[in-house]
Design goal:
Elements lengths: L2 H13 L11 E2 L4 H8 L7 E5 L5 H9 L2 E6 L2 H10 L6 E5 L7 H8 L3 E5 L5 H8 L7 E7 H7 L10 H9 E9 L4 E2 L6 E8 L12 H13 L5 H7 L6 H10 L13 H17 L1
Parallel strand pairs: 2-3, 2-5, 3-4, 5-6
Antiparallel strand pairs: 1-8, 6-9, 7-9
Bound molecules: S-adenosylmethionine.
The site of S-adenosylmethionine has 23 residues, from β1, α3 and β3.
């Protein structure tokens, strides 16, 4: 039994609280992993880290030793009390008891000067968290433990089954690398699926093929195309929340030389960008 498993069992014994499956409480028990995560995040003493779901603090401990400041958001009040107890003498941890899906993350990132996110995310909210965090420019990188299936979506290529709106949204802002794959036994309790550590590094300079003139239009076009992924592009954009006449859409498609009979799932990220910019221009020009 690892020392981390012992700590969890101790906590359960002392408090009578078992890990809450609904909150995605699968704690890391392989002690080799937190140092690997901090290596991948390339931490330095000037980094200000946001950790979502510090849990019992196994990863937090590692981050605190490397970074200037760690800001942890934990939804479970019992775990918050445990973290306060464990890190009572530590100066560089700010603990927020709250729901990462409801807090103003952008405001927090801005006001605290957070430049990196490092977390073993609760599986059930990894998608919505990624939608909220990606594209927020002050972040240099996000190093995240997610389900293997989510990692596959983040790094998927057009025409593959895993390619979807999350792939396009994350690929617009960051470059994804799958760093490690972990077995269920490296967590307690063991989840049903493998997990992967991914690094998402914000593009250092804005390449023209990723410059979107209207980000909310981009989201609507992309979401619309994958909502009806078997439909042809022309029909999926029309069926989306984008208010556009067919003639205008056809003009936009023609302008960027994209065949309207293609399906959205075949478009590369730069094609989605070009199409959105052309639609924006047509809408603006009329
Ligand atoms: N970081 C710890 C580790 O690696 O062992 C725990 C990771 S565990 C996979 C996910 C953690 O996120 C749990 O502590 C859980 O209580 C917390 N959590 C779940 N939903 C949350 C939410 N909406 N906001 C903040 N924390 C949440």
């Amino acid at each position: 039994m690892s020392s981390l498993t012992e700590e969890i069992l101790n906590f359960i014994h002392r408090t009578g609280r078992s890990p809450n499956r609904k909150l995605g409480q699968n704690f890391l028990i392989d002690a080799n992993i937190p140092p690997k995560i901090s290596d991948v995040a390339n931490l330095s003493s000037s980094d200000i880290i946001l950790e979502i779901g510090p849990g019992l603090g196994f990863l937090t401990q590692e981050l605190l030793g490397k970074a200037k400041q760690v800001i942890g958001i934990e939804i479970d009040s019992h775990l918050c009390s445990e973290l306060e107890r464990r890190f009572s003498t530590v100066q560089n941890l700010t603990l927020i008891h709250g729901d990462a899906l409801k807090l103003d993350l952008h405001g927090l990132i801005q006001s605290c000067g957070i430049n990196k996110v490092v977390a073993n995310l609760p599986y059930n909210i990894s998608g919505p968290i990624l939608w909220r965090l990606l594209g927020y420019s002050p972040l240099q990188s996000l190093v995240l433990m997610v389900q293997e299936e989510v990692a596959a979506r983040l790094s998927a290529s057009p025409r593959s089954k895993a390619y979807g709106s999350l792939t396009v949204w994350s690929g617009l802002h960051t470059e994804c690398q799958i760093e490690l794959t972990l077995k269920p036994q490296q967590f307690f309790p063991a989840p049903k699926v493998n997990s992967s550590l991914v690094s998402l590094r914000t593009r250092s300079e804005m390449q023209p093929q990723f410059c979107v003139s209207d980000i909310s239009l981009f989201r609507k076009v992309v979401k619309g195309c994958f909502h009806t992924r078997r439909k042809m592009l022309r029909n999926s954009v029309k069926a989306s929340n984008v208010q556009i006449d067919m003639e205008i859409l056809d003009l936009a498609l023609k302008e960027v030389s994209i065949d309207s009979n293609r399906r959205g799932e075949t478009l590369s990220i730069s094609e989605f960008v070009a199409l959105t910019n052309a639609i924006h221009q047509q809408l603006y020009a009329t």
